[in-house]
Specification:
- The chain is an alpha+beta fold.
- About 15% of the residues lie in helices and about 35% in strands.
- The protein has four helices and 13 strands.
- Strands 1, 2, 3, 4, 5, 6, 9, 10, 11, 12 and 13 form an eleven-stranded antiparallel sheet that branches.
- β12 and β13 form a beta hairpin.
- About 20% of the residues are buried.
Length: about 210
């Protein structure tokens, strides 16, 4: 199966860190730019989100953590909150996490195979709305704003001794083909239209990585 260059790097983060003479923990903290479809209601008089259905995307720039399990982060949060318990880990409602990788694989009802990057957001740096892949005007934002679904802020986890505890942030799954750029281990990897990568290394050199077989 043909693999994108981004998938190739993400499937072996520890090896990448070793090649750069960095500790394996350095693969966790990263910044990401992703361009994802806006989550919109499909109602309204026209039944098509005011004519913006399928046209609006959101470009996010986020600091966060990859290459780690949510349970580890959640347990640390609970310990700092004084809760003497750990969360009960349930199976994912959809998709399967690939063992040892920050990737989730999922096959749609239509039979389309997709890969997702499991990402724990820590800080959202920038958010920009696009219409037809260009920056949205102020007038357009006002026009489609009523159709945007409310963002999910917190996640509930179930404990054995506590009914519910609110965790501020949850793991997000970003389709790999929606990721435009990753900044980690001192490198900046920018995805090209054909799936290849342009990598700006810490030493100032630039490398192009093509599609992997």
């Amino acid at each position: 199966m043909e693999r994108t260059a981004l998938e190739g790097i993400l499937t072996n983060l520890a090896q990448r860190a070793k090649e750069l003479n960095l500790p394996a923990s350095s693969v966790q903290i990263t910044s990401m730019v992703a361009n994802t479809p806006a989550d919109m209601n499909k109602g309204g008089r026209g039944g098509n989100s005011g004519g913006f259905a399928g046209r609006v995307t959101v470009r996010h720039k986020i600091n966060g953590v990859i290459g780690t399990f949510w349970k580890r982060i959640a347990d640390n949060f609970l310990a700092k909150s004084g809760v003497e318990d750990s969360m009960v880990l349930h199976h994912r409602k959809w998709g399967s996490r690939i063992e040892g990788q920050p990737l989730v694989e999922h096959t749609t009802r239509e039979g389309e195979y997709r890969l997702y990057l499991e990402f724990f957001p820590i800080r959202r740096l920038k958010e920009e709305y696009l219409v037809d892949n260009r920056p949205a005007t102020a007038e357009e934002v006002e026009a489609f704003k009523p159709y945007l679904k409310e963002k999910e802020k917190d996640s509930e986890i179930t404990l054995t001794n506590v009914e519910k505890v609110r965790i501020p942030n949850i793991v997000r799954d970003y389709r790999l083909d929606h990721v435009e750029q990753l900044m980690m281990m001192g490198e900046v990897a920018t995805v090209q239209d054909d799936g290849s990568l342009i990598i700006h290394h810490r030493d100032g050199s630039i490398e192009e990585v093509g599609i992997l077989e």
